[in-house]
Amino acid sequence: MHRQEGNQNADQMSPMGLALAGGLAGGLLGGLTAYLTQDNEEDLVERGDDRAMRVIAGALTGVTIGTLGGLGVAAVSNQFRDQSEIHSEGGPCEESQYLHCNESINTPIAPKETLHNKLGHYLNNQVKIQQKSRKEAKKVVMAIQIELQRVLSQNLPFKIEAFEYTGSSYEGVKVVKADEFDIMIPIKIPPSWFHVDDSMEIPGFSLIRKTNMHNCGDSFDKYLEKMVSQDVTDYLSPVLLKRHFQSLIQQLFINGNFKNQMNYHMTLAPKGPAITINVKRSTYENAIFIDIVPVLKIGQQLFVPKAHSQHKDGGLYSFLWRESFSLQEKKLLKTMDGQNECRRDLLRVMKTIQLGSSQIRMLSSYYLKTLLFHLNKKTSVNDWSCACLHERFKDFIDDLIECTSSKHLPNYFCPSANLLAEHAKQPLKELSSYLQRIRRRNEYEKLID
Q1: Which residues pair with 304 in a beta bridge?
Q2: DSSP run (H or E) holding 10
C-alpha cells in the first residue's frame, strides 16, 4: 500500500520537477547569453552596472521561458497518464460508462442512445398503466360482476361454474389504459348429452351435436333443448345461446337502483363471441369495456359463440362454434417469465406500437400474442434476459415480416388453423414491405419514436 502511494507521489512530482529544472536551466542560459552579447572588454569596464542588469534580466527571462516549457511538458504527461489509467483498468469504455470516461479528459460528449435504452424508456413512459387507474377500473368491474352473478343465478335453471377471468388485463400484458376486461361464463355440458362434431373439417371450429337428452327430466336439459335450432335439428345454436345471455345481461340496465348507486352510464353491444358492456363512470376518466362471453365446456374443451366467416351462407356454417384456448394462453403467459426475463415486456411493447401504428393496427393483439408464443418456443430459454430485450424485439419484427409476407400464422394451440387465412393479401404485403424497410435501414427506433 505504501509502495503504491510512493509511486503515485513520484508520478505526480515528476512533471513539477521538469518545470523547476527547466526554469533553472533557462536562467543559466539567459544569463550566459546576456554576458556573451556584450560588445567588448572596454564596454564591460565602462558599463559595469548595465552589464549586471542585462545578466539579471536575461536570467529572469530564461527562468520564465524554462518554467512555462516545463509546465507544458507536465500537462502533456498528465493527460497521457490519465488516458493510460483509464484503458489499463477496464479496456475501452462501455456505453454506460461513456460520460464518466470522457469527463476525465474534459470532453463530456453525450452517447447516442441505444435501441435497448429506448425500449426501456418506452416501457416506462408509454406502455405501463398507472396503478391507481388499474385499481379504479377493477373496482368498477367487480361491482358489475357481483350484480351479474345475482342476475344469472336468479334466471338460469342451472348453477353456473365460477367465472373465468381472461384476456390481457388478467394475463399481465394490458397496456396504456386499464379499459378492457374479459369474463367467461362457463356452462358445463355433460358429454353424454352433446358431443363435439368435427365432420366439417374446419380448423378451430366444431359443431356441437345433441346425442341423448330424451326424458332426462332435468331443467338443464330443457334449457339446452331451447338452444337447439328448430330449422336444423340436433345442433346447438351459438346464435340462440348468445341471444339469450344478452337478454339476461340486459337486466343489469333495468335495475335502476344498481345504476344510480354506482353512478354508471352503461350501454350494451354484441361484439364477436362476447356481449360487451360499455361503462362510463363520472369519476372515471376513460370508458371501460367488459366482454361477457358464454362458453360451453365439454370435457376439457371450451367453445365460444364466435361466428365463422361463412356463417351468412347459412346451412351448418351458422352452427359452428369456435374452440377457445383462453385458459391455456393465460396460464402460459402468467408463467413464461422467470426472474429478470422479458417475454411479457416484449409483448407489451408490440401491443403499444400496434395501438399507435396505422400500419400494424390492422393486426389484432391476439396475433401478436400468438407470435410471441411461437418465438418463445424456438428461442433458447437463456436468451430471454431483460438485457436481451432489443435482440428479441428484432426477432419479433423478423417473424412479423415472415408471417405477413407468407400470409400464414398458425394458431399456437391448433396449428392447422391459419389466423391470417381470411385477411386480404395486399394490406399484409404492404405491412411486410414497411417492416422490411425498417429492418434493412436498421431504423427500429422509428417504431417507438
Answers
A1: 322
A2: helix 2-36
User: What does the alpha-carbon distance between residue 114 and residue 126 come to, in Å, rounded to a whole number?
Assistant: 17
Residues 6+ apart with CB under 8 A from 37: 54
- Composition of the chain by helix, strand, coil, percent to 5: 60, 15, 30
Q: Which three cell numbers stand for residue 395?
A: 426477432
The alpha carbon dihedral of 378, 322, 347, 426 has a sign of: positive
Q: Could you give the count of Cα atoms lying within 13 Å of 275 in the half-sphere of its Cβ?
A: 21
Q: What's residue 433's pLDDT?
A: 96
> Is residue 326 over pLDDT 50?
yes
Backbone φ and ψ of 180, nearest 5°: -135, 130
Q: Cα separation of 37 and 42, whole Å?
A: 13
Residue 185's DSSP bridge partners are 294
CA distances from 395 to 54, 321, 391 (A): 81, 34, 6
DSSP β-bridge partners for residue 369: none
Cell 352510464: give the residue. Answer: 265
What's the burial of 119, exposed, middle or buried (CB within 10 Å: 0-12/13-18/19+)?
Answer: buried
Distances, alpha carbon 267 to alpha carbons 93, 148, 205, 220, 240, in Å: 59, 15, 30, 30, 21
Q: Which residues of 296-335 are buried (b: 16+ CB within 10 A; e: fewer)?
A: bbbeeebbbbbbbeebeeeebbbbbbbbbbbeebbebbee
Instruction: For residue range 62-80, list pLDDT tens digits in order.
Output: 445 454 454 444 444 444 4
Q: Which of 439, 414, 448 is nearest to 345 (CA)?
A: 448
The answer to pTM > 0.85 is no
CB 66 within 8 A of CB 18: no
Place of cell 371450451: 302
Torsion of CA 28, 31, 34, 38, to 10 degrees: -110
Q: 409 exposed, middle or buried (CB, 10 Å; 0-12, 13-18, 19+)?
A: buried
What one-letter code names the amino acid at 133?
Answer: S
What is the distance between the terminal CA atoms of the chain, rounded to a whole angstrom? 52
Residue listed under C-alpha cell 360482476: 145
- Tens digit of pLDDT for each residue in 221-248? 778 878 887 666 788 999 999 999 998 8
Tell me which residue of 120, 173, 176 sits closest to 390, measured CA to CA.
Answer: 120
Supply φ then ψ for residue 66, to 5 degrees. -65, -40
Share of the chain above pLDDT 70, in %: 69
Q: Which of 270, 265, 260 is nearest to 286 (CA)?
A: 265
Q: E-assigned strands of 171-225?
A: 180-188, 194-197, 205-210
pLDDT at position 234 is 83
d(CA 225, CA 235): 10
